[in-house]
Design a protein that fits this description.
This protein is an all-alpha fold. It has one domain. The protein is 73% helix and 0% strand. It is built from 21 helices and no strands. α2 packs parallel to α15 and α19 packs antiparallel against α21. The two termini are 33 Å apart. About 5% of the residues have low confidence.
């Protein structure tokens, strides 16, 4: 009866979101109700308050969004976009897939999907419209490129922090960010390639129906003035990404002393706040997790300083712009992660996670498709890929380890599925922004990208099943007690 009542509450939350009730309100209320019927409402409340100060995602997200705002202030993002877009002006037939590719590439260093859409929209949208591409296709290409998952090739992505922390909490060796990028790369590119090809084919058909047969011709000069490109400014968005790879395995060109970012007393404080036993392995893990998240923040701060130095006229506005971006991240992204985590805790308290665990252990073949499809559904409802990964990783990572599959591999699938679900969500901030920039509606745009995304994820599921069946991602070390 507890499960039946819990599923009813979950269904009611989904219905409320679809009826345009604020996502945060619906998920938080549902999480509290789930906790209440299980007699564990206090656990949900504790998740709420601990999530508001959780440095594992507050620091990377707020610093990354602050960096994105500084890039916009100094126009470094615009120089990178112009550099990537310039080759597309010559061949009209490549504009649509090229627009998706540009969005994907810019989203790697600029991990916010909404910031990516804003950065590239001011350059790409006029270019596409001048080439007689309809606003619906232009907006859908912008949405697909900015949200399909470029940030998942940046080891500073918040989803990776969740996977690293969750894998360690399950007792397995924590993977490095570079390893996660290595696992992610082929699956992400497969998803991108299939989705882009399907979207391109459907868009050509849509454009023919809307404006007649396409003609192979250069984009007219009216597409925009050829503004000068500073290669120095264009390189600034890539700086934090490069720094993170230089300090991580397997390169490790730079060695950052841990005491620069985390003091010895802080690790003890982290453990005491979590009411954990001060065992040496746990102590070391807490210190490493705090160091890793702050390292991402430090890389973003270096990027902010360099961006400021490229435009001395705007140095006085840099600090305000950074904290404005950090505040936006907290209000619009961190808040959603916090309530989604409360919702996930409520699901855990009614035992639904153990039900999933039992199903996967009884039918291991369901691990890959269920981890992708459930995360897609959660992200579709919540409008956040980060929140979906944060809430669901352990639901699938734990049974994965028990059947001999590396939890981090399942984490990669969960985060990819979550990115696809977010891109198909009409309540996602990036969908709303893409619609606003092109004068269309988010609902129209998500309809245009849904089939391509589903085709791409079907290919990912197939590739994941093959990888599991061949033992490519087996657990390399048993879980520690």
């Amino acid at each position: 009866m507890l499960l039946v009542l819990g599923v009813a509450i979950i269904a009611a939350a989904i219905y409320a979101v679809l009826r345009k009730v604020d996502v945060r309100l619906a998920l938080l209320c549902a999480g509290l109700l789930l906790g209440a019927i299980s007699g564990q409402a206090a656990a949900v409340v504790q998740k709420f308050f601990s999530g508001m100060t959780n440095g594992e995602y507050v620091i990377p997200l707020c610093s990354a969004m602050g960096f994105a705002h500084v890039l916009r202030l100094t126009e470094c993002d615009q120089h990178l976009v112009r550099l990537l877009v310039r080759p597309l002006r010559r061949v009209r037939s490549l504009l649509i897939p090229g627009a998706v590719a540009v969005g994907f590439l810019v989203n790697i260093p600029v991990v916010s999907q909404t910031s990516t859409a804003v950065s590239i929209g001011s350059v790409l949208i006029p270019l596409l419209l001048a080439a007689r591409v309809t606003p619906e296709t232009a907006g859908a290409a912008l949405l697909l490129g900015a949200s399909i998952g470029g940030e998942l090739l940046n080891q500073g992505a918040p989803e990776f922090r969740t996977i690293i922390q969750g894998t360690s909490a399950l007792g397995y060796p924590a993977p490095s960010g570079a390893r996660l990028v290595g696992i992610m790369l082929p699956f992400n590119l497969l998803h991108l390639g299939i989705a882009t090809l399907v979207f391109w084919g459907l868009s050509r058909k849509f454009e023919r129906a809307a404006v007649g047969a396409e003609r192979e011709e250069p984009v007219p000069a009216s597409a925009g003035v050829e503004l000068p490109i500073s290669l120095i400014k264009a390189a600034v968005p890539l700086l934090p990404l490069a720094l993170l790879f230089l300090v991580a395995e397997p390169f490790r060109v730079l060695e950052i002393p841990r005491e620069w970012l985390v003091g010895p007393k802080e690790a003890v404080s982290i453990l005491q706040d979590a009411s954990e036993t001060l065992k040496q392995p746990t102590f070391a893990r807490a210190a490493q997790e705090a160091f890793s998240s702050r390292l991402i923040g430090a890389a973003m701060i270096v990027g902010v300083v360099v961006a400021a130095l490229t435009d001395f006229r705007k140095i006085g506005k840099v600090a305000g712009s950074f904290f404005e971006g950090a505040g936006y991240a907290y209000a619009n992204i961190v808040s959603l992660i916090v309530v989604a985590t409360c919702f996930g805790e409520g699901i855990k308290q009614i035992g639904l996670d153990q039900a999933i665990h039992g199903v996967v252990r009884g039918a291991p073949g369901l691990l890959v498709p269920s981890s992708v499809l459930v995360s897609m559904g959660f992200a579709f409802v919540s409008g956040s890929g980060i929140a979906a990964t944060q809430s669901l990783f352990r639901f699938f990572g734990e049974p994965a380890g028990h059947i001999g599959v590396a939890p981090e591999f399942v984490g990669v699938l969960v985060s990819l599925g979550a990115a696809a679900g977010r891109t198909m969500s009409p309540v996602a901030a990036v969908a709303l922004m893409s619609g606003s920039l092109t004068g269309t509606s988010a609902a129209v745009l998500v309809k245009r990208v849904s089939l391509p995304l589903l085709a791409g994820m079907a290919a990912v599921i197939l590739a994941g099943l093959i990888a599991v069946s061949t033992g490519r991602f087996e657990v390399t070390a048993p879980a520690s007690p």
